[in-house]
Amino acid sequence: MYRTTSKFYRIMIVSILLSSSFAAAFAQKKILFVTSNQEFYGNSKIAAANHFEEIVIPYHLFIKAGLSVDFVSPKGGAIPIGYINSSDSIQKKHLYDPFFMDKLKYTLKPSTINTDDYSAIFYTGGGAAMFGVAEDQTIQNIAREIYNKNGVVAAICHGTAGLAYLKDNSGNSLYSGKKITGFPNKFENKEAEYYKTFPFAIDEAIKTNDGNFVHSNEGWDSFTVVDGRFVTGQDPSSASKMAHQIIALIEANTPQIKKETIKNLDKVFSEWDNASHKPGVAAGLIKDGKVVSLKGFGSANVNHQLPVTIDTKFQIGMMSRQFTAFAVLLLEEQGKLSLADDVRKYIPKLPDYGHTITIKHLLSQSSGLADFSALKEIAGWRDKDFFTQQDALNLIFQQKKLGHVPGTKFSPTSSGLILLSEVIKQVTGQTLAAFSQQHIFLPLGMNNTFFLDDNETIIPHLAVSYQVGKDGLKHNPINYSITGTTNLYTSVADLSRWYLNFENPKAGSKKLIEKLTSAVTLNDGKTTYNPTAGKLLYGQQYQHAKRGIIKLWTYGLEGGYASNIFIFPKQNVTSFVLGNNNRYNGILAMGMATEVLGDIFPEPENIDFGKLKTLKLTRQQLEAYSGHYWDNERVAALRLYVENDTLRYQPLGGNNISSLVPLSENIFQMVVDGDGVIMVKFRKEGGTMKMIYTSGESDEYVYEVYNPKTYTTTSLNESTGTFYSDALKTTYTLHQNEKGLFTSNKNQSLIGFTPIQTDLFLSSARNIGSIRIARNKQKKIIGFYINSDRIKNLFFEKIKP
């Protein structure tokens, strides 16, 4: 039957459970491979198999062309494969590719297929294809629906048997009068036992269904037939030619943007042109409700040389928060909770702080709760320590005070998202992971997306988390199992489904999406939160002007994973990049978006400071603003000084120095690369100079001038000693050396403190922020308070001198 003597290989493994139905409306370019579960020819003991070459060659070419492939079989799960030519480099590569082989182990059930997801259906061959496929009515319906939606129907060799009974909606042949080829009866060994088990001859079955069966005279000559949107191949030699013909038809039937633009999109990722072995990225672009591009670049696993594909899973860090917010708003829409509900209604273990914390406060970062990730670092947890959801909750529950009255001001904190995860659990009886799977991911067909709440789970098709440094590559594992604020794993193919849902909701409603993309407010219902990242939205994204055009954006950075998303709502453009290369990938995502948006930006890519209308100030006028400045709210210090008749800006302890250009006597603009507009204004209040910093449309950051405190060794000595926090069950010992006051913890061997004012020190550790010495009425030191932008008044009592 086939010109091969390769032994059959069997994949016999228990299939994972998959959803019974999907409901996504998806414009993605995907191809559905139809395979067979049949292990034997009919009722005989002769082993049957799916033809490996007829699967691998087209699969390889489709993936190379940027297409995605799913596999389906009548029963789902494992399928037998055979006819393997291990001397063929492509077949050998895929035989030892665990990502590909898992697709054959875990084929989908027909009942799980949403035909909106596919541009083509491809019936693969092998003796097994003669059994169980053609008569499967669900697969027949799938093929008909894909064809009716302008899709391609393809079959190779014995896979053409699957077309035998295909009918249109009226009960007539789906390919009436069309030319079809496959493995002809002429080439079969009619004396062989396998042949006697066949339910029909392929050519006769096609003719009976009003098709025009054709074939070459010799065979094994790459014979194919394209008739409309039917593409068929005679035998394994047709595999490569068929694949190219299918790709051409899909491209012709898919709305395209300019070919030059597509080429330029690839240029954005040119660093991987000759470096496919290094950690990489997967990228997606959507325009006008259609997927324009989904591609992978570089390596998902450097050791095993596994490429990044559009189905490769990445952890997306803070980008996970939008899914938590969506789940909360979905429960609100279902009437199962209200944003005005007291959080303690669902989490009674949360201390009563004397002020009601509502679900809205958690979503809007106005709860006053200390940030658990900052508490974690101060408590001495290391990145390599295993950290659970309960560990995070314990840190939150141990806190004695709020930083402010809920809903009266904003402060960045991740604790709210952790608590929201618990609220969902109490309301639904399901974990966030389970609820999201049932109500978000499965309805949208996001098969490669989930919240990881068990750190020991083995994740197939996962991009390895890498740390890229001077010493080469190192593994950068994520050792926690917290959900709500992070720990969502997904692929770019799945993310495209998610963002398409924003335009045509299948999960949630249009009203929910509108709320998700609206700004959070304080209790007054008016005041919005505008950090330098932009205006915070309920969906935990930020709204920010990019060169004069509104964009929504957020990012994630956990371990070696880095992710970015940019949405230009008025232009209907969404661009996103996921990576395992331990770096900010926003430049890549913005590069893709810019290629599609074109020259529509009203503002330049880079500010030309030479064209700004500036004012010449004397050195004396500039010196009036020189000095040290302190922002008590955000716990930040900086120094301004004059050099070469220019006012310079330098964060305390930092190496970056920026120039300030005067636009008026008291208003300056910072010189930056790019299009960011950073303004610095000065005003005197009560005889004290204040500096007001804004970035774009951000809230004002107010700094006040101060005279740095100088300590002698003797005067600093009383600040040393051992201090204990009951809220963290943690001890710190303050020492002094020739450079001043310092301490350490498990994470950092040296944490220095710079004097700001009397009894106030700025820490070199970001999450510690500052310490303010506390004294009793006798002026004796009794402890200190830690303050940062994320934590307020965390007390450490002095227990030893």
From TrEMBL:
Residues 54-248 form the DJ-1/PfpI domain. Residues 1-27 form the signal peptide. It holds the Pfam family DJ-1_PfpI. Residues 266-583 form the Beta-lactamase-related domain. It comes from the Bacteria. PANTHER family: BETA-LACTAMASE-RELATED DOMAIN-CONTAINING PROTEIN, D-ALANYL-D-ALANINE-CARBOXYPEPTIDASE/ENDOPEPTIDASE AMPH. This is CubicO group peptidase, beta-lactamase class C family. CDD domains: GATase1_Hsp31_like (cd03141). Keywords: Signal.
